[in-house]
Amino acid sequence: QVQLVESGGGLVQAGGSLTLSCAASGRTFSSYAMGWFRQVPGKEREKEREFVAAISWSGGSTHYTDSVKGRFTITRDNAKNTVYLQMNSLKPDDTAVYLCAADRVMGLRSPAYHYWGQGTQVTVSS
Prior knowledge:
Elements lengths: L3 E4 L2 E4 L4 E7 L8 E7 L10 E6 L6 E3 L7 E6 L4 E6 L8 E8 L11 E2 L3 E6 L1
Parallel strand pairs: 2-11
Antiparallel strand pairs: 1-3, 3-8, 4-5, 4-9, 5-6, 7-8, 9-10, 9-11
């Protein structure tokens, strides 16, 4: 069982930066791959959340969706049971609820993840 709690969201102007954190409970955090996804307002009924980034259990492998490559960086600190998403050069299109997720195997689609946080709102103004 893994419980996830996101923090760090907020309102930022276009071009600004935010760092999201996802704190995990449990002693087996280091054995889980972690992902960041986002859900756009008005699209909550969609079956899949939009993939943003993922990181392997060791941190040695990362993946990003094309729209955030070069702007976002996913990292993890297994000693702190925390995964981070550094977001730079933010755009209004990045506005969404950002959720972190965990599972034994790293995936690029939301159905691959069993454990989810509640999300944190990121709003980018133009």
